[in-house]
Amino acid sequence: MQLSAEAIWRANTKEIIDLLDSSALSAKPKNVHFYAPSFMYCKTRYYNSSQNNFPTVSVTGTACAVNCKHCGGKVLKTMRPAETPEKLLTLAEKLKQQFASGCLLSGGCYPDGSIPLAGFVPAIEKIKRELGLTVFVHTGIIGLDTAVALKNAGVDAALIDIIGSDETIKKIGNLNVTVKDYTDSLNALQQAGLNFIPHVIVGLHDGKLKGELEALKIISSVKPSAVVIIAFTPIPGTAMAKVNPPQPAEIAKVTAAARVMFPMTPLALGCVRPKWKHRTETDILALKAGVDAIAFPSEEAVEYAKAHGHKFGFSSCCCAQIYVDAAFRSPSK
Q1: What phi and psi values does residue 240 have, to the nearest 5 degrees?
Q2: In this predicted structure, what is the pLDDT of residue 328?
Q3: Residue 99 to residues 50, 134, 186, 263, Cα–Cα distance (Å)
Q4: Is the dihedral of CA 318, 252, 222, 168 positive or negative?
Q5: 19 vs 6, 36, 249, 306, CA distance in Å?
Q6: Domains along the chain?
Q7: Minimal CA–CA distance to 201: which of 158, 239, 233, 225?
Q8: Longest C-alpha distance within the chain, in Å?
Q9: What percentage of the chain exceeds 70 in pLDDT?
Q10: Are the beta carbons of 163 and 173 closer than 8 angstroms?
Q11: Does the model's pTM come out above 0.85?
Q12: CB atoms within 10 A of CB 3
């Protein structure tokens, strides 16, 4: 099979698994980074995560104007609230006292897909200047002015979900935007000079593949600092609670396509994906596909890395940190 993103995309489930088992994707990392940020406690025989080191903070609390079908605001309840710049500064000072290294700022969206970060820029600048914390931001749809302001405030990196299907944006996200708005957002982040890490959500369209390859193509039009693959995961109490998630081989298809399309770019399997046996299978396939990092890895994935001679380590930072931690390699290695 020719190793192009299109060829990988045409492959069926069995062919994807056979492809990865045959080591046809030879650009496997010599070093694997495992991440366990503190928004979810992780305790295994290999690593116990910190509960304070790198939390996710919502600048809107539990409020979201969108009520998307896959989240319904439920994810916001797992974040630490900081609805005003003053509350954010207070929280940041507390994190510093607890020896945290940083945080991820996120929040609920407006109907245009944006997150209200602009009003927090002075607070972010103070956090960077006086506390020295690492600050990542989850931007949503973003314009150049806000991107430049975040860059000038000292934001370390911007995370953004990229959706490659207008139908998915409307049906699942309930957003008044199009694929072009995501393209424009990537261009704004790049023009501002921010480190930016696009995320591709596998199976967001009712658990089925739709628009993921287009999302990767959009990302390939810019120069991301890293790329993260995540997967739709049913959340109790949401409109999609009973929707089956994508299969591990389908997540592996997107991951393998990303590896081929971005051979020199750090690639991570992110924190959002199904658990238990599904996660074990997904994680091992991701390692076979050549990811540089996995967030909240299954114990079996760690054992696989160990058995195959990979050097590895754990960190309680967000997996977007891979843009700093990864050792870049040429496609031939």
Answers
A1: -110, 25
A2: 56
A3: 10, 12, 33, 35
A4: negative
A5: 14, 29, 11, 21
A6: 5-325 (3.20.20.70)
A7: 233
A8: 56
A9: 94
A10: yes
A11: yes
A12: 15
Taking a C-beta distance cutoff of 8 angstroms, is the pair 72, 62 a contact?
Answer: no
Tokens of 168: 């998915």
- Three-state SS across 143-171? CHHHHHHHHHHCCCEEEEEECCCHHHHHH
Three-state SS at 94: helix
Token couple for 117: 């970060």
Separation between Cα atoms, residue 121 and residue 98, nearest integer Å: 23
Query: 86: exposed, middle or buried (C-beta count within 10 Å: 0-12, 13-18, 19+)?
Result: exposed
CA dist 118 and 225 (Å) reads 22
- What pLDDT does residue 220 have? 97
State the amino acid at position 278 in one-letter form. Answer: H
- Residue 89 in tokens: 């500064």
Q: Please state, for a pLDDT cut of 90, what percent of the chain lies above it.
A: 83
Sequence letter at residue 198: P
Is residue 62 within 8 Å of residue 68, measured between CB atoms? no
